[in-house]
């Protein structure tokens, strides 16, 4: 069976970071995604709120660099949670996403990824038991990559593109 979820959206609250008894980080927050569409000639928007959970080093990284409103892409698996409400005694349930890979989408000037930490993955870690896989290393661009300096950029040679942000799906 295959269980994979990819979401792009904004965090709805700051991250709540805790540690398990064996010292692994557990970070929880929620993401809001939206979809714009036209129905019967009327423009509509639908927003979906999903709880997300980071484990291990990715939880610590998320807590360090992300805040409420940060734009993020997460890949993970869907998890079904059930519990009994303490106040009413009723059974409750919800779906949430366990994050395996994240990519911070805010520009550095907006404060989303100030340290240059754009992509992080904890895929392969075993969160259910007492063993934690070694944390993956930070993403580093290949040595051949070099960011062009602003002085070398040609002036006014770029075409001007008029994009309506309402039409972008995320």
User: N-to-C SSE series?
Assistant: EEEEHEEE
Structural class by helix and strand composition = mainly beta
How big is the Rg? Answer: 20 Å
Helicity, as a percent range: under 10%
Count of helices? 1
* Strands, count: 7
Shape: globular
Major beta-sheet overview? 5 strands, mixed, barrel
> In percent terms, what proportion of residues is strand?
35-45%
- Unreliable segments (pLDDT under 50, ≥5 consecutive)? 109-118, 123-136
Spatial strand arrangement across the major sheet: 1-3-4-6-5
State the distance separating the first and last CA atoms: 28 Å
Mean pLDDT level: 77
Summary of the model, kept short:
With 170 residues, this protein is mainly beta.
Description:
This protein is mostly beta strands. It is 5% helix and 42% strand. It has one helix and seven strands. It has one helix spanning 57-65; strands spanning 5-11, 16-19, 25-39, 42-55, 71-84, 91-104, 119-121. The chain has a five-stranded mixed beta barrel with strand order 1-3-4-6-5. It is globular. The model is unreliable at 109-118 and 123-136 (pLDDT under 50).
Summary keywords:
1 helix; mainly beta; 170 residues; five-stranded mixed barrel
Write the layout of secondary structure elements.
Layout: E1 5-11, E2 16-19, E3 25-39, E4 42-55, H1 57-65, E5 71-84, E6 91-104, E7 119-121
């Amino acid at each position: 069976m295959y269980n994979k979820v990819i979401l792009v959206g904004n965090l709805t609250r700051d991250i709540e970071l805790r540690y398990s008894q064996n010292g692994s980080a557990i970070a929880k927050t929620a993401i809001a995604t939206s979809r714009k569409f036209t129905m019967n000639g009327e423009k509509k928007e639908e927003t979906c709120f999903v709880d997300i959970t980071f484990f291990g080093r990715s939880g610590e990284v998320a807590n360090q660099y992300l805040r409420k409103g940060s734009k993020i892409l997460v890949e993970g698996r869907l998890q079904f949670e059930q519990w009994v409400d303490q106040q009413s005694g009723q059974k409750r349930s919800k779906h949430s996403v366990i994050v395996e890979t994240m990519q911070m989408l805010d520009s550095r000037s907006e404060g989303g990824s100030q340290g240059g930490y754009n992509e992080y993955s904890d895929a392969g870690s075993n969160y259910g038991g007492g063993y934690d896989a070694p944390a993956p290393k930070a993403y580093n661009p290949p040595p051949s990559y070099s960011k062009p300096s602003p002085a070398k950029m040609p002036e006014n040679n770029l075409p001007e593109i008029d994009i309506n942000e309402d039409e972008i799906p995320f």
